[in-house]
Amino acid sequence: MMEIQDQVELCFPHLLNTSCRKPTLHWSEAVLLNILLSSISVITVVLNLLVIISVSHFRQLHTPTNILLLSLAVSDFLVGLLLMPVEIFRKTACWVFGDTICVFYCLLSSTIICVSVGQVVLISVDRYVAICHPLHYLTRVTVSRIRLSVCLCWLCCALYSSYYVKDVLTQPGKSKSCYGECVLTVDNITASVDAVLNFSITVAGIIVLYLRVFVVAVSQARAMRSLVTAVTVQILKPGSREVNILERDC
User: Fold this and answer.
1) Which of 22, 35, 176, 193 has the highest CB neighbour count under 10 A?
2) Where are the domains of the chain?
3) CATH code, 2-186
4) Rounded to an integer, what distance in angstroms lies between the CA atom of residue 132 and that of residue 209?
């Protein structure tokens, strides 16, 4: 009886020694997890699809900033459409699609996440140039340059992700400990380099750029306030032409 029960709990009962066990989530936990993640996935897909359709359809929205937002929306759309449903399946069921699909999923997920991070950096640079160098923005940031930057971002992220999952690409199924799972494991050096590139340097660069934008925006606001105050004082100065007109009209 115990042997039959153990076979039922296996992903592949005919592989007694090498098969993974089925996820042991309680049915209420599985239903709650599926509803929560499915709702987030649907909302992500719908909202980003609206952005993609809007920016793509209306030519008036084909500005450098909107093109960056479009690329970010595409990556987030793929997260909601592909990555999140697959993650739901991985958490609640056994992996039955084979090693090839697992390798493709690992490469795709790594690429999409890298692209999302890269697009956030490009948007930060775009806002930095627009706020800190407004007179040179139209000449430095053009639609053609932004499109080239977006294409290079996707290409570089694909190449980087290929290196990141090189062990899985060269030897599919190497990381899994049993049949019925899809996992991605990397060595400590690769994980450390990825953490530095995709998190530490990226976050530090974004923080520095936005701090610079904040300082410049505050200084510009103070300059505008001082200019408005000076103009108001000049207009209301006794004996000025504007004051004489106001007194004559009264």
Assistant:
1) 176
2) 2-186
3) 1.20.1070.10
4) 10
Q: pLDDT for 178-198, tens place per residue?
A: 888 888 877 788 888 888 888
Q: What is the pLDDT of residues 46-75, one digit of tens each?
A: 999 999 999 998 989 999 999 999 999 999
Predicted TM-score (pTM) of this structure: 0.81
SS3 for the chain is CHHHHHHHCECCCCCCCCECECCCCCHHHHHHHHHHHHHHHHHHHHHHHHHHHHHHHCHHHCCHHHHHHHHHHHHHHHHHHHHHHHHHHHHHCCCCCHHHHHHHHHHHHHHHHHHHHHHHHHHHHHHHHHHHCHHHHHHHCCHHHHHHHHHHHHHHHHHHHHHHCHHHHHCCCCCCCCECCCCCCCCHHHHHHHHHHHHHHHHHHHHHHHHHHHHHHHHHHHHHHHHHHHHHHHHCCCCCHHHHHHHHHC
